[in-house]
Write a structure and sequence with these properties.
The structure holds two protein chains of two kinds. Chain A is mainly α. Chain A is built from six helices and no strands. Chain A has helices at about 15-40, 55-75, 95-115, 115-130, 135-155, 170-175. In chain A, α1 (about 15-40) runs antiparallel to α2 (about 55-75), α3 packs antiparallel against α4 (about 115-130) and α4 packs across α5. By secondary structure, chain B is mainly alpha-helical. In chain B, the strands form two sheets. Chain B has a two-stranded antiparallel sheet. Chain B has a two-stranded antiparallel ribbon with strand order 3-4. In chain B, β3 and β4 (about 365-370) form a beta hairpin. Classes of the chains: A mainly alpha, B mainly alpha.
């Protein structure tokens, strides 16, 4: 440490600093993506401020503030604050995170491919497994019960559109539960 | 006095609509249950149930979601007291005395103190809302795009800078919310913006999948992680009893403190972005400072439960004042309610209090927006009584029941409900994908001290802010100077700068103290 709170250039980084630098990179990248997309907006307008101005300004501000986070993290790279318990991904269980998101992706893909009811049964079983249920009987019966219940509530009672699957039309199954859908 | 007679009319309208009464009472129960589930909040409940409100009339829909916001805040105290986990951020201070009291065999006493204090605070806040909103709306009716832009900008800056731990990350959360909101077609020139060449994005993103992603899916991910560590609820406390009752004399002794805390909570609630989580700690700290038995606070005293609970529930009503008088949502619940107003063709802002602003429902009924708002206030008052009664006698039972539901069954149900709800807003599979994407975004935001609430509020505010900015410039002869020359607009911008300056000074002091120690 050269002075209170200021680190020498070779001082090791704290965990918070490393995460904040990563955050800065991601924020700048998002800002650049939005900025490039904003520059593609047709600026033609009779106004002083057209449809492009605000998005471009916000994207630039995002890049500047992202850089601010990165610089501030580097300037305080050895200062560890007390409240870091919930900060960052040190305690993250990435397997679980991706299991939940994976279940969601499977749900969405199945929804598109085979329609709502079959997708819900499939995702219900997956979700039970992700949350730690290991009994095959509970998973199968729970998933079927969930599928029937959700089909009845959302398509039957609330009258939502029951879309056909793009690959396989299984609405003959869902019509056993909600004949009018 | 006029407001009082309108309120009587509001009760008449509410009790004349059985569906509205049913959904008000249902909301009291649903909010308590969601609030009491560790990790889930009133915002999560509202996000999942918002699509249901599309199928209701304006009064039942608004009453349902508004009362869930209130009872959800209260429900958080059940999780705080019984499970030592704040069901909502607003209950974090309640844990400090609530859990030790429950642990020593007085869970019912702790829960009933929380119920009485929550109901007391919520009624004070609701009264301030009813009379305050009517009074403020008289002045804001004359505002034009210049003033509105200044107000929106102030809300952006204030919410961004106060809602999270870091000012920069809070403001970045609002900028990100604004950029996501601008995806779609420009309302003035009809030009597609930020659509990344995708046809599906030309209509913009809907609020429901974003809300579900940021508040529900991200929480499901966090709960899945916790389950892996086996760190879920510490249940069963409500089975042990020892002097486990709250006497009338004790309640009477708490009244002055509850009143002070409620006033503090109400004023904090009026500031956009400063929500219940701030109010509960301010009231807890202030009342502990004043208390003669301050050294006992934290060991399980009823005062340590009553102060934060009065304050956090008093926030509920006044946090609606910016929404109803200016059209600016001060909280996530208010941001969602904007969506419900718009779905029913009602423009939020001071004109809501106009008698000539008529609303015609699908069934052919018609009433003025003023009548609707006073019926909503009446629903709020009925909802407070309903959750008070349910909580006073049923709180321990609700808590014990939740503790007995295995999380491995509960969260899959919430996951399926969240996905179905995100699909149901526009019957679009793309919305399901967006909910999942923003679930991951919300998770990352929470892990890195960004502010999901600021992101959502900015998403709601960004388009009207941009429109008022462009309209003001069209009207201006002096370009952007119009925002400084108009005294009202200039004052709001000055307030925004002042809040940011105070926050920066406060953070620097905190940092210096941390470094010194």
């Amino acid at each position: 440490m050269t002075r209170a709170g200021q680190a020498s250039p070779l001082a090791p980084m704290t965990y918070r600093t490393r995460i904040d630098i990563g955050v800065a990179v991601v924020v700048i990248a998002i800002g650049i993506v939005f900025g490039i997309e904003a520059l593609r907006i047709n600026p033609a307008s009779h106004e002083a401020v057209g449809p492009r101005s605000v998005p471009v300004f916000l994207a630039l501000l995002m890049i500047v503030l992202g850089a601010g986070i990165g610089l501030s993290a580097l300037a305080n790279r050895t200062v560890e604050t007390a409240d870091t318990d919930d900060f960052g991904f040190r305690d993250s269980d990435l397997k679980r995170v991706f299991a939940v998101i994976g279940a969601g992706i499977v749900y969405t893909a199945a929804f598109w491919a085979v329609g709502y009811l079959t997708a819900t049964v499939l995702a219900g079983g997956l979700a039970l497994w992700v949350f730690g249920v290991r009994s095959p009987l509970v998973i199968i019966l729970g998933a079927i019960a969930a599928g029937i219940a959700y089909q009845f509530i959302f398509m039957g009672l609330m009258g939502l559109l029951d879309p056909r699957g793009e690959l396989l039309d299984l609405r003959w199954l869902s019509r056993l539960i909600t004949p009018g859908s | 006095m006029e407001a009082f007679s309108d309120l009587i009319g509001g009760f008449g309208m509410l009790f004349g609509d059985p569906q509205a009464i049913f959904f008000t009472l249902l909301a009291a129960f649903v909010g308590i249950v969601f609030g009491a589930l560790p990790g889930l909040t009133a915002s999560a409940a509202i996000a999942m149930l918002l699509p249901l409100s599309f199928y209701l009339g304006p009064l039942p829909a608004l009453a349902f979601l508004y009362v869930i916001g209130k009872s959800g805040r209260y429900g958080g105290s059940i999780a705080a007291i019984l499970f030592n986990t704040p069901g909502t951020a607003a209950s974090a201070a309640t844990m400090q005395d609530g859990y030790p009291m429950a642990k020593r065999g007085q869970p019912n006493r702790a829960l009933r103190t929380a119920t009485v204090a929550s109901v007391f605070g919520d009624y004070i806040g609701e009264i301030i809302l009813i009379f305050g909103a009517v009074w403020i709306a008289q002045y804001t009716r004359t505002f034009g795009p210049t003033e509105y832009f200044a107000i929106y900008l102030m809300a952006f800056i204030v919410i961004g800078s106060v809602v999270g731990k870091s000012i920069t990350k809070g403001i970045l959360s609002t900028i990100f919310g604004a950029l996501v909101a601008l995806i779609g077609t420009d309302v003035i020139t009809n030009a597609p913006r930020l659509t990344f060449g995708t046809q599906d994005l030309r209509d913009g993103l809907s609020l429901v999948p974003l809300l579900i992603g940021v508040f529900v899916i991200s929480e499901i991910i966090i709960q899945a992680e916790r389950m892996a560590k086996g760190s879920l609820v510490d249940a069963g406390l409500a089975d042990q009893h020892k002097n486990d009752h709250l006497s009338f004399a004790e309640v009477r002794r708490l009244v002055p403190m509850m009143f002070r805390s409620s006033i503090m909570g109400s004023f904090i609630g009026m500031m956009p972005g400063l929500g219940s989580s701030v109010a509960c700690f301010v009231a807890y700290g202030e009342e502990k400072r004043r208390a003669k038995n301050s050294e006992e606070w934290g060991t399980g005293v009823i005062e340590g439960i009553a102060a934060p609970e009065s304050a956090n529930n008093a926030v509920s009503g006044p946090s609606m004042i910016p929404l109803l008088t200016l059209g600016v949502p001060g909280s996530t619940v208010a941001a969602v309610l904007i969506g419900v107003f718009l779905i029913h063709g009602i423009q939020v802002g001071p004109l809501l209090f106009s008698d000539s602003n008529m609303i015609i429902t699908d069934t052919g009924d018609f009433f003025s927006s003023r009548e609707l708002i006073f019926a909503l206030f009446a629903a709020g008052l009925v909802g407070i009584a309903a959750y008070g009664i349910l909580g006073f006698w049923g709180g321990p039972l609700i808590g014990k029941t939740i503790a007995r539901i295995p999380a491995k069954y509960l969260y899959p149900i919430i996951f399926l409900t969240a996905v179905a709800a995100s699909y149901s807003s526009r019957a679009s599979i793309v919305d399901v994908g967006i909910a999942l994407l923003f679930g991951l975004v919300g998770y990352a935001m929470r892990r890195t001290e960004f502010a999901p609430a600021a992101f959502i509020i900015a998403f709601v505010l960004a388009r009207p802010m941009e429109e008022s900015f462009r309209q003001a410039l069209l009207l201006s002869d002096d370009g952007a100077l119009i925002f400084l020359r108009e005294p009202v607009a200039g004052s709001f911008l000055a307030v925004a700068l002042l809040v940011v300056a105070l926050r920066i000074i406060g953070q620097r002091r905190q940092r210096k103290r941390a470094m010194a120690s």
